[in-house]
């Protein structure tokens, strides 16, 4: 395998590269710096392509539609960029520029889709949510022709949260235990378990619903309920939790385990008092991400929860609606207000997902063993207070212990109460 | 696997078992007790319970997957007995007349998944390269979070967005494809090209929406693989005068090839199983869609989502059998994909 890009070995004589500039007889290499020529080339290509595409697309050819316009603009932009860059730089350099533009374009496209998705749901759903009754009433007394100041999403929120809570209750212990098995106990079976878990993360959600429909509802004869839905959600949530928590358990430093063994700790003591507390922040992230994924699942709930327009706070009996199901049901009404309600439900759902997601990021901002700033400050305070009386006489300011380093290396496992 | 496995029983065992003197080749008769003591770690009862408990939690995934397969087979058996092997080839779905099968819905679902892959794979891989190689390193964490957030957006939201936002905006593009490229590629033609409604609810729109849903999956998996490309070889490439793209082409991409293939296959599995967005957008037909731009399409999962309410026993059983087919296909695809990924990812099974 050759590691050199040999494509442009021929024409690399020119003195016009941006990276190499001859300055008083010395060649200075400044990789990654942005010059005026770079910016000018980029802007020129973008504006030129915009003008040409506008002319052709809007004035000459009988085409329309913003999507096609921007697609044509992007293609034209790449050609322009290539052409302008080629007039000043060698081929290899131009290729680098085009690759960067392509990849950046794809990344920005993905971000734009996300922003559009969230923004559009916000824009449409806000009309429903801005009515005070939307979050505080259910749909019991609301017909298809009633305005937005009647009816709401309360019953679906209750259902969503209860089903999510039950699913978390089932999936989290099971998922973390499976992760501990794979990383701490291991053995011959760890690899097939990992393969099955990975395959399970991509299990079609409708199959999970079908499974609960076939087993709990049809075979065991229970009615459709929030409990059945939470079982289906468990099947979806457990592999996500397992995979994410296995990753964070695996990066717990091995020295911590060995220290625990050296102190005579048994394996389960080590896992319980050292490994899991060290990985706590990562585990929290894993759980919250699993919850964020589970709360938005529609198809398992569709088959197992049933539908009701009224409030049912008991997940164990009677049909119980949840937010995705609410959206699924009301978006198919022909009335405009019902569609707005569906968007309001989607906005509420997105808000819950966002809250869980942001909480996961805040909780998981640290590597295992790294302490939060507050905890570190607290430990410093404790150390100073503890060292206070004895350190008063001999050498107070000199021994300012470095609490951060010590804390990072030896995070204190909290006693399991 | 931890190297030191010794439990509390270590002290007793340290001098307990005498080294084997007979058959072992290592046990050469050494003078003065120089033979190394073989340490057999003791396992306390607590540890034994811990291992059994957690091992059974790990093995429960087999149980869950087995139960899923078992119940789908039991429930779908009735329908499969009626149709026999023709279940896989029959295109119609008339459960009362005992003429039903996945002959149309399965290929239709694959068409949607393929359209989704055609759009998603280039975008997702490029975005993954951008995040792992080109994006400013201060932004990288935020970008990774945003891609994860995109994966966490509920599928119903994608479906809603595709139905209400995307459909009216993409019709122009569909019409453009159909009128200008339809002559060269006949499968792009549409029956009544002048009416807008012949373009809505098409397999193409469903494919685009599903593509947006699998982009974050493919992107985050392949970004993970890309970022694991060895630093030494990257720096070697730079030291030999390579540009960044040259480095990506010669180090990152060859190193991540297995992971990319696996990620794309996982994306395909996701696309095959995607239910709600497809069910919201397409208008179901029971014939193989030869013209993806035209209204009408289907997939196994959307068929189930739209018909689960039927009370007829045979109809439900037929849906279970269709679910079994979907389960088997996605399981196969996902197993192969995850095997490829785990083989390509060095150090997955060890502590680093």
Task: Please give a structural write-up.
The complex is a heterodimer of chains A (417) and B (352). In chain A, 66% of the residues lie in helices and 2% in strands. Chain A is mostly helical and 417 residues long. Chain A has a two-stranded antiparallel sheet with strand order 1-2. The longest helix of chain A is centred in the N-terminal third of the chain and has 39 residues. Chain A starts with 19 loop residues before the first strand and ends in an 8-residue tail after the last helix. With 352 residues, chain B is mainly alpha-helical. The N terminus and C terminus of chain B are likely disordered. At the A-B interface, helix 2, helix 3, helix 4, helix 5 and helix 6 of A face helix 2, helix 3, helix 4, helix 5 and helix 6 of B.
Shape, principal axes of CA atoms of chain B: flat
Per CATH, the class of the largest domain in chain A reads Mainly Alpha
Low-confidence stretches of chain A: 1-19, 390-417
Would you give the CATH topology of the largest domain in chain B? MetI-like fold
In percent, how much strand structure appears in the residues of chain B?
under 5%
Structural class of chain B: mainly alpha
Oligomer: heterodimer
Q: Biggest protein-protein interface?
A: A-B, 115 and 122 residues
Helix and strand sequence of chain B: HHEEHHHHHHHHHH
Q: Gyration radius of chain A, to the nearest Å?
A: 30 Å
Pattern of helices and strands of chain A: EEHHHHHHHHHHHHHHH
| Strand arrangement, major sheet of chain B | 1-2
Sequence stretches where pLDDT stays below 50 over 5 or more residues of chain B: 1-28, 346-352
Total domain units of chain B: 2
CATH architecture of the largest domain in chain A: Orthogonal Bundle
Portion in helices of chain B: 55-70%
Which structural class is indicated by helix and strand composition of chain A?
Answer: mainly alpha
Q: List the domain count of chain A as a whole number.
A: 2
């Amino acid at each position: 395998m050759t590691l050199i890009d040999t494509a442009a070995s021929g024409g690399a004589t020119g003195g016009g590269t941006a990276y190499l500039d001859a300055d008083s007889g010395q060649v200075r290499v400044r990789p990654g710096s942005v010059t005026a020529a770079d910016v000018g080339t980029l802007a020129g290509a973008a504006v030129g392509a915009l003008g040409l595409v506008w002319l052709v697309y809007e004035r000459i050819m009988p085409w329309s539609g913003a999507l096609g316009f921007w697609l044509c603009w992007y293609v034209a932009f790449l050609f322009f960029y290539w052409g302008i860059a080629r007039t000043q730089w060698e081929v290899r350099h131009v290729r680098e520029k085009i690759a960067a533009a392509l990849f950046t374009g794809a990344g920005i496209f993905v971000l734009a889709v996300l922003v559009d998705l969230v923004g559009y749901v916000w824009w449409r759903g806000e009309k429903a949510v801005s009515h005070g009754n939307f979050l505080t009433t259910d749909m019991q007394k609301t017909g298809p022709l009633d305005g937005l100041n009647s009816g709401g999403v309360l019953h679906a929120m209750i259902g969503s949260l209860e089903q999510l809570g039950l699913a978390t209750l089932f999936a989290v212990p099971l998922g973390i235990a499976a992760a501990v098995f794979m990383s701490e106990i291991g053995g011959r079976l760890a690899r097939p378990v990992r393969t099955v878990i990975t395959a399970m993360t991509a299990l079609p959600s409708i199959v999970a619903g079908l499974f609960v429909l076939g087993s709990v509802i049809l075979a065991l004869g229970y009615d459709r309920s929030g409990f059945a839905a939470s079982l289906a959600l468990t099947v979806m949530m457990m592999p996500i939790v397992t995979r994410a928590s296995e990753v964070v358990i695996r990066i717990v430093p091995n020295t911590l385990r060995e220290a625990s063994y050296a102190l005579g700790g048994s394996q389960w003591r080590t896992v319980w008092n050292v490994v899991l507390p060290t990985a706590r922040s990562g585990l929290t992230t894993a759980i919250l991400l699993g919850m964020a994924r589970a709360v938005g699942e529609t198809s398992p709930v569709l088959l197992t929860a049933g539908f009701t327009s009224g409030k049912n706070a008991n997940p164990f009996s009677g049909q119980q609606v949840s937010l995705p199901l609410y959206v699924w049901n009301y978006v198919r009404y022909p009335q405009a207000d019902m569609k707005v309600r569906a968007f309001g439900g989607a906005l509420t759902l997105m808000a819950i997902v966002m809250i869980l997601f942001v909480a996961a990021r805040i909780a998981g901002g640290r590597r295992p063993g790294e302490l939060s700033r507050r905890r570190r400050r607290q430990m410093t305070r404790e150390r100073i207070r503890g060292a206070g009386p004895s350190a008063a006489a001999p050498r107070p300011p000199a021994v300012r212990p470095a609490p951060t380093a010590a804390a990072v290396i030896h995070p204190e496992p909290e006693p399991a109460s | 696997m931890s190297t030191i496995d010794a439990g509390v029983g270590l002290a007793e065992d340290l001098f307990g078992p005498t080294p084997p003197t007979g058959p072992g080749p290592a046990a050469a008769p050494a003078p003065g007790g120089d033979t190394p003591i073989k340490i057999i770690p003791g396992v306390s009862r607590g540890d034994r319970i811990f291992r059994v408990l957690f091992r059974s939690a790990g093995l429960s995934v087999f149980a869950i997957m087995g139960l899923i397969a078992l119940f789908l087979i039991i429930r779908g058996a009735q329908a499969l007995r009626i149709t026999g092997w023709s279940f896989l080839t029959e295109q119609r779905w008339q459960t009362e007349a005992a003429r039903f099968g996945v002959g149309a819905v399965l290929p239709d679902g694959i068409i949607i998944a393929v359209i989704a892959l055609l759009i998603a794979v280039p975008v997702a891989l490029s975005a993954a390269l951008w995040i792992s190689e080109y994006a400013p390193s201060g932004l990288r964490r935020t970008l990774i979070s945003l891609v994860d957030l995109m994966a966490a957006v509920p599928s119903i939201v994608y479906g809603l967005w595709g139905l209400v936002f995307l459909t009216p905006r993409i019709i122009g593009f569909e019409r453009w494809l159909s009128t200008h490229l339809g002559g060269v590629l006949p499968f792009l033609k549409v029956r009544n090209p002048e009416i807008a409604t012949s373009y809505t609810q098409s397999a193409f729109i469903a494919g685009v929406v599903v593509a947006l849903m699998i982009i974050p999956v493919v992107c985050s998996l392949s970004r993970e693989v890309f970022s694991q490309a060895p630093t030494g070889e990257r720096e070697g490439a730079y030291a030999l005068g390579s540009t960044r793209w040259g480095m990506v082409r010669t180090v990152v991409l060859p190193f991540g090839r297995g992971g990319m293939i696996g990620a794309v296959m996982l994306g395909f599995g996701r696309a095959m199983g995607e239910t709600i967005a497809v069910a919201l957008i397409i208008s179901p037909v029971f014939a193989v869609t030869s013209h993806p731009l035209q209204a009408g399409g289907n997939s196994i999962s959307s068929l189930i989502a739209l018909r689960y309410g039927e009370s007829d026993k045979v109809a439900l059983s037929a849906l279970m059998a269709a679910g079994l087919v979907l389960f088997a296909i996605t399981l196969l695809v996902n197993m192969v994909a995850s095997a490829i990924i785990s083989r390509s990812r060095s150090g997955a099974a060890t502590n680093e």
